[in-house]
Amino acid sequence: MKIISTLITVLAIAAAAGWLYVESDPGNAIPSQSLSLPIPEFLGAEAMARPVEDAQAPIQHPFLAPAGINSMHNDAAQSDAYSWAGPLGKSMQVSSRQFHRITANCVAQTWDSKGRMIGTCVSPFGVILVARDSETLEPLATQVITRWLPVGQKFSGGVYFHLDNQGRVLLATNDLAIQLWRLQVSGDKHEWVLDESFDVSILLNSTRRQKHHIIDVIPDWQGNYWLITRAGIVATVDRDGSGGHAITLGEHRAEGIDNALAVGENGVFIVSDHAMYAFDRNARGEVKQIWREKYERGSAAKPGTMGWGSGTTPTLVGNDYVAITDNADGQVNVMVYAQPRRDQGQQVCKQPVFPAGRGTSENSMAVVGNGLIVENNFGYSGPRNVPQSQPGLARVNIFAQDKGCELAWENLDVTSPSAVPKVSLANGLIYVYTRDEANPDDLHAWYFTALDVRTGKVVFKQLTGVGWKFNNHGGSISIASDGSAYVGVMGGVIKLRDGP
Q1: In this structure, are strands 492-497 and 93-98 parallel, antiparallel, or unpaired?
Q2: Tens digit of pLDDT for each residue in 66-86?
Q3: Which pLDDT belongs to residue 2?
Q4: How far apart are alpha carbons 366 and 165 in whole angstroms?
Q5: Residues near 158 by Cβ (< 8 Å), separated by ≥ 6?
Q6: Residue 408 and residue 306: Cα distance in Å, rounded?
Q7: 334 near 365, Cβ under 8 Å?
């Protein structure tokens, strides 16, 4: 994916907040703007659950919490697929809770074994780890992870996190440490406690001494940690923190990284702004490149992208394939590669999607059996601008036995400016976060939207609220095992569930 593009310009938001949202009050619902004319709250009809029968359950990582709830993209494969059902659009109930008086994009939500919601919120002054009551959305414990003023800067320092197999939050800070946080509970008191911390500053500076921004850290199949930085450093650290090795990407020039990494049984998969990579550790615990494949990065960055190159986090399709989108001029392409190294090259297929000159993807794709759901984010320009993004959602199917791929369907009516699409394999629905084409162009009205995974047709839309604080700005939709859906937005968190 991409969880968030260039973060908020804090001073502009603070200046505007005084008259736009005087009533803002953390602890209350996110305030929705009043309208001179009514708009529909619900469009479409209640869905009928149709499970995806040929879809495999996401592969369980041995060192992470159960697949589906261990990270923003659900699992180490970054599949964005749930084996359980989400909302069907029946008499939907919508609630919300603010987190910060000015703004705080609560970008990712998941759950621990006790059902408590675990997430990160990006406020004007840093990244905050939050435990919540899943029913009321009330914060139970907060912990500042990284203090920094994100004016015009790309995210780093704990925005991505994962739950390990002990229920601890795994993340990396801008203080250059891998950290594991445990939620300690005593009676009604909840508190975040730092369980382990491994300093990686010496390791990162061994490749290049500079200001480092760590994007993500995940254990591999043996429990050793892998981390990546925006400057293109890839590092591995022993599971006990005792040793490590780091390299810098780039054959002839430095390569940057704007996306998270994916991990599977066949290795660690990373996309830079020039190429797709697969890595492993050698017998000495060093970073070992398995393969590298260049992709078309185009002549420039496209509107709606964070950088010049692929905008997608690598997505693993079982143990066979890994997929990204490129940044080619003209039409953007879904690129599918074989995970294991092959003598004939890694590329399995290349499928163009979306209209030429009006397509790009800045979010991770979702996996449906042998299919990939890809979203168009071309033209998205930030949380306070009413999005003028181009419409587009598509499904690309991969043929068996490496026989290529096909465009199964393409919906060029739905506009989901920046939300990470999620799929429920149990009811056959894709969930995105949209504006409605029937509404005025200058209206910030936002809808939780479900589409049929087989046809790409819209099934229902539920209004969440009106105003820029209801823009999710690249955050992730999350589906709880009880069928409730959560959307992290600029004002806090929204909860949606089916009614009686």
Answers
A1: antiparallel
A2: 999 999 999 999 999 999 999
A3: 39
A4: 23
A5: 120, 127, 129, 145, 146, 171, 172, 173, 174
A6: 28
A7: yes
